[in-house]
Amino acid sequence: MDRLKAQAAKNREAAQVLRRRGKDTAAKGMEDRADELESGRVTDCTDAVSSLISWAFRP
């Protein structure tokens, strides 16, 4: 869950940059994604995918 919160924070920072550049639609999309990441509806599968890849490429 910490990875998702960290990514949400990065998305919000990127949204601020986009707003300063006048790209409000893109900024809104980044903020919506940050909200989704923070909501708990998104599953962090990083560890499972990493394990699967390690298993697949094991000698």
From TrEMBL:
Residues 1-13, 23-38 have a biased composition (Basic and acidic residues). Residues 1-38 are annotated as: Disordered. This is Uncharacterized protein. It comes from Streptomyces coeruleofuscus.
